[in-house]
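thread: overnight batch results

M.L. [08:02]
morning all. the overnight job finished for the chain we discussed friday. pasting input first so we're all looking at the same thing
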Amino acid sequence: MKAIGLTRYLPISDPESLVDIELDKPAPTGRDLLVKVEAIAVNPVDTKVRAPKDKVEETPRVLGWDAAGVVEAVGPEVTLFKVGDPVYYAGDITRQGANSEFHLIDERIVGAKPKSLDFTHAAALPLTTITAWEALFDRLKVSAEGKDAGKTVLIVGGAGGVGSIGIQLAKRVAKLTVIATASRPESAKWATELGADHIVDHFEDIPKQLEDAGIPTVDYVLIFNDTDKHFRAAAEVVKPQGGICTIVENAQPVAVELLKAKSAAFHWEFMFTRAMFETPDMIEQHKLLSEVARLIDAGTIRTTLGRNLGPINAANLREAHRLLEEGRAIGKLVLTGF
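M.L. [08:03]
and the structure it wrote out:
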């Protein structure tokens, strides 16, 4: 089968950083599905895993943790899906990724593809949607039934992949007042169209901008961009007994002592946790993706596809990595078909 992989971890400008390869078609066992991949999306985690380092893989490593496709075969313990079912999912970082014609994935972290979306638009959703959903509803314990309606959330990185779906979940599902950060007119327009009530610039003084907007403090802060840069501002603006959740690893110590006087909570969100550790509630991601498909088909939220870069091949995948490393992508980058 066709795939895109690597054996060395190189700068994306190097044509050997991601290459077209041929691999044996795998066979499903246990609760695995074998999915014929129709479309993939690219995320910052792909670029971080691929980042240059002194390591050589003995066999090609395949990246990619966002896919939509059709179930080709099922393992003997599968109960949730059957051959021919269209699905979408984010995957498991401890296994081979989805940048291949066929891919093995545990059914417990797979959802039925939204009926109203094609594979391209569906592939844009899983990883970022799981991340935003878990951050908002599992970590910060915001009500997914709207019981916290009217409370406020600051979303740092509103026009990125996670921010794009996070704005929609916060506004249209949780019924929160949403302040999103964006630094360019086009990203501000995108965030506003998705439901943000207010826009602030994350390159400027965030607490001052919130003060000027008449919203000096917020109930929740979601940091979807640069924890090191934004944590102190988040700690300053979060309300007493509020909560902060970040998805971005830190390079410097996080000054959590700033939260003590406020009795404010600090959470990490990493959407691969359930699959990595095979937690007892691993199937919650299947349920989550099923609920998101229902919300999509009902018109409550929409896909966050920003740009389709064309067929799935090494050249287009390298371009997607390059765009993400520049940090200026709006929405999700998707590739479709081999």
